[in-house]
Amino acid sequence: MDHLSFKTQSVNKANANKGWVVVDASVAPLGRVASQIANILRGKHKPSFTPNSDCGDSVIVINADKLRVTGKKMTEKIYISHSGYPGGQKRKTMREVMEKSSTRVIEHAVRGMLPHNRLGREQFRSLFVYEGAEHPHAAQQPVEANLNKL
User: Which listed residue, of 26, 38, 120, 127, carries a Cα 20 to 30 Å from 62's Cα?
Assistant: First the structure.
């Protein structure tokens, strides 16, 4: 056998085999769901993973309103934002954020697990979070992901 027959393939935008995956957010706690979503967005579940390119799949998250958290996170976890003006710091508990939009909690958790550069921002654009069980991406023929087997 020729020793040059097995060459390492570097994946780029042109030859990335990107697909669509549906994840149910109600099957596991927030951190476990978010870490699996981040791995799928990065493409770490594929044998052709390349760390410097966007080779991950697009992820559709459903049932964000049925998200589970453990402990006292609903009352003690605080999301901090700042308007940029003096005294413009705002604090909200997880319960307040979930009442307004439960998709923000998942998006915030996944964004923190992606790289903090332009590649991470590009990968984050492939995340679609919906509160109910319905989503408008049926035309992409997404595959159901079982988080227990990943």
Answer: 120
Per DSSP, the three-state class of 124 is helix
Its sign, for the CA torsion 21, 25, 28, 31, is positive
Contact between 113 and 34 (Cβ < 8 Å): yes
Residue 149 has pLDDT above 80, yes or no: no
Distance CA 74, CA 33 (A): 17
The whole-angstrom separation of Cα 101 and Cα 132 is 12
Cα–Cα–Cα angle for 31, 35, 37, rounded to 5 degrees? 115
pLDDT at 77: 97
Task: Write down the residue that tokens 């998942």 correspond to.
Answer: 106
Mean pLDDT of all residues in 21-41: 96
Structure tokens at 121: 């921002």
Split at pLDDT 50, 70, 90, the class of 10 is confident
Element (H, E) at 118: helix 118-124
**The token pair that represents 9 in the structure block:** 């393939």
If you average pLDDT over residues 121-127, what whole number do you get?
Answer: 97
Q: Give 36-72 as a DSSP string.
A: HHHHHHHTTTSTT--TTS--PPEEEEE-GGG-B--TT
